[in-house]
Amino acid sequence: MVKLAEWRGKEVFRKYGVPLPKGAVARSPDEARSLVTKGTVPLPCVIKAQVLAGGRGKGGAVKFANTPEEAHAAATAILGLEFKGERVKELLLEEKLPIARELYLSLTLDRSARLPILMASAQGGVEIESVEDSAIVRQPIHPFPGLSGYEKRRAAKVLGLIGPAAKSLDRLLDSLWEVFMREDAELVEINPLALVGDRLVALDAKVIIEDDASFRHPEYAEIRDDRTPLEEIAREKEIAFVQLDGNIGVIANGAGLTMATLDVLREFGGRPGVFLDLGGTDDPAKVTEAFLLMAQAKPRAVFLNIFGGVTKCDTVAKGLVQAMGNIPAADRFPLVARIRGNNEKEGIEILRAAGITSVASLKESAQAVVREAGGAA
Ligand code: GDP
Ligand code: MN
User: What is the domain partition of the chain in residue ranges?
Assistant: First the structure.
């Protein structure tokens, strides 16, 4: 999966005719100021950190400026910031438009329906996860005919757009559909899609390109900025490691068990912050490496959930005990372990000798780790 930074996503949008604010990228405060003085970016302007995590608006990674000096100051404040684990190296400067309403629009795949799906909501500008279900319309789209006139009119109605604004939506949806299909995207999202007067403008762009189509898109092969620094290290060590927003670390084996473990934690109010899939390994050193990597992500608590198969319980236990001895005191974390399956007895014995208890019940172990991380959200 290749996640495009906002400015790259907008470059793609521009190619397909999605309306955008005037803007340009800066990599230093001086460059930011000069974009404004030269008039490349009109004032007042918006200055946005180019990180992949969402919630920049709330998190102080989007600022406004009325003068070149303010643009310089805002750029100084944002560049070099660490936002949700990502260092800000690039800024997008854009003209600040007077927004009448903020809407939400996306195209993605509905894997259970096996169809692309159009999602639209009149409540844009906030994370879509926080919008109640009844305020979001989900319209499956048949991939061959694409968006029909009826589907576009339904979207206009949901978004409360009439007249020229509805026309603007009609054209924008055609462009967005082209982006989704031709670029082999698994997600294109505009949030917020702003109503400015009676036209629509994409103020944000989130584009994710499907890995399986990478052979058709050599232009995306060089993009590496979709991984956090720790994810980059993990990738070099061939460890499946993904950082999320929460505070609980998960170490499991196999994609299925790993995903199920995340779900179970959420079920009990926990927020997974990073997960690591040990996969199939019979090398305790690899397990140690995985734990050391996990420690660097600084989780509040870690849940080790292993079902021994190829990866035997005693292998994991040995690697774990080894790692615990090597983690710097400042990076230590409360651990809840659950190891079952192949060589379970031996594994539990090794853990016990190191003062770690394996909790047999999935429910009890998940609840315990949520408690250790500060309780249910
Ligand atoms: P995100 O929070 O990371 O998704 O960043 P967004 O690109 O969505 O920007 C966050 C918020 O900044 C938006 O919801 C808008 O309220 C505000 N914003 C961004 N661009 C503009 C603009 O051109 N004009 C105005 N008035 N507000 C903007
Ligand atoms: Mn946004």
Answer: 22-95, 101-219, 229-372
Among the listed residues 317, 310, 311, the one whose alpha carbon sits nearest the alpha carbon of residue 337: 317
| Residue range 63-119, pLDDT digits in tens | 999 999 999 999 999 998 988 778 899 999 999 999 999 999 999 999 889 999 999
Spatial separation of the C-alpha atoms in residues 127 and 304, rounded to whole Å: 30
CA atoms of 289 and 304, how far apart (whole Å): 14
Look up the CATH superfamily of 22-95. Answer: ATP-grasp fold, A domain (3.30.1490.20)
pTM above 0.90, yes or no: no
Q: May I ask the CATH class of domain 101-219? A: alpha beta
Q: How does pLDDT run across 41-75, given as a tens digit for each residue?
A: 999 999 999 998 888 988 899 999 999 999 999 99
Task: State whether the beta carbon of 286 lies less than 6 angstroms from ligand 1.
Answer: no
238-276 pLDDT, tens per residue?
889 999 889 999 999 999 999 999 999 999 999 999 999
CATH topology of domain 229-372: Rossmann fold (3.40.50)
Asked whether 46 lines ligand 1 (CB < 6 A), one says yes
The reply to whether 220 belongs to the active site is: no
Within its chain, how far is the Cα of 355 from the centroid? 36
- Ligand 1 atom showing the smallest separation from residue 98 Cα: 26
Q: Look at residues 337, 336, 346 and name the one whose alpha carbon lies nearest to residue 312.
A: 346
Q: Residue holding tokens 């849940």?
A: 303
Ligand 1: which residue has its CA nearest to atom 12? 57
Of 355, 244, 261, 262, the C-alpha closest to 306 is 261
The atom number, within ligand 1, closest to the CA of 59 reads 2
Is residue 255 exposed (0-12), middle (13-18) or buried (19+ Cβ within 10 Å)? exposed
